[in-house]
Amino acid sequence: MSDIHDVSDTGRQLAVVTGASSGIGLALAHEFAKHDFDLVLAAEDHEVARVATDLSAKTGYVVPVQTDLATFEGVERLAAAIEDTGRPVAAAAINAGVGVGGAFVEGRLEDHLRLVELNVTSSVHLAGRLLPAMVAKGEGRLLFTSSIAAVMPGPYTSTYNASKAFLLSFAEAIRVELDDAGVSVTTLMPGPTATNFFERAGIEDTKLGQSKKDDPADVARQGYEAMMAGKDHVVAGSMKNKAAVAASKVMPAAATAKVHAVLGKPGSGGH
């Protein structure tokens, strides 16, 4: 575990953010800090310690946890760090995720399996660790970062789109289960956002990778506001994202898959 700052009871609420060292996760961490939350931040890289140092000057107490959430042990490490604070979790942004680009049969199977472990399994695992205490206390908020990719099959990002569809379905289901428990579940659905996602997924040379992207700070703010308002979901970012989700509701899956194939095909950004 990384350096742990003193998180004894400060009078502030405690929030957890995963994938907090960059992109939407980093922006969410800043959003929570701006609203006077103490924080437990998780990421796989050492940058999480620097982020924690920066944010501690704004919000007081921050716990950085460098851990690989794509593993069972990594999620348990985070859960132990949260428990060690001795504080109830008021809100959690389950945000860590990764993409894998290219045709499924041409990629490395281990990359796709790791995507499922991080995007899907770790999200269920962490929710399972956090929710019982929230339900026992009768209050709490969960925010899952899904994507507008959840509403359409994704040729050339097949496992990514499927993982985001899982998160959307899972979040909507447990939201209903928790209706009378005082715990809200919100799904954040951004479109293309200016993060390192496209580079890491290897899809910078696609039409999707070269499309105009939203500001992660705007996406995080909309997600935070929706979570605090107890909304079931928010399609964040530009109106184009909302239009894409609306279109997916009237187009058959085969048609939306073909549209995505044009946008996600390797090399399509150069045509």
Structural class: alpha/beta
Rounded Rg: 18 Å
CATH superfamily: NAD(P)-binding Rossmann-like Domain
SS strand fraction: 5-15%
Fraction of helical residues: 40-55%
Number of strands: 7
Largest sheet: 7 strands, parallel
Mean pLDDT: 92
CATH class category label: Alpha Beta
- Unreliable stretches: 1-7
Any idea what the shape is?
A: globular
Instruction: List the secondary-structure elements in sequence, H or E.
Output: EHEHEHEHEHEHHEHH
Largest sheet strand order: 3-2-1-4-5-6-7
- The DSSP helix count reads 9
Structure explained in plain terms:
The protein has 271 residues and is of the alpha/beta class. It has one domain (14-270): 3-Layer(aba) Sandwich (Rossmann fold). The chain has nine helices and seven strands. The longest helix is centred in the middle third of the chain and has 29 residues, at 109-137. It is globular.
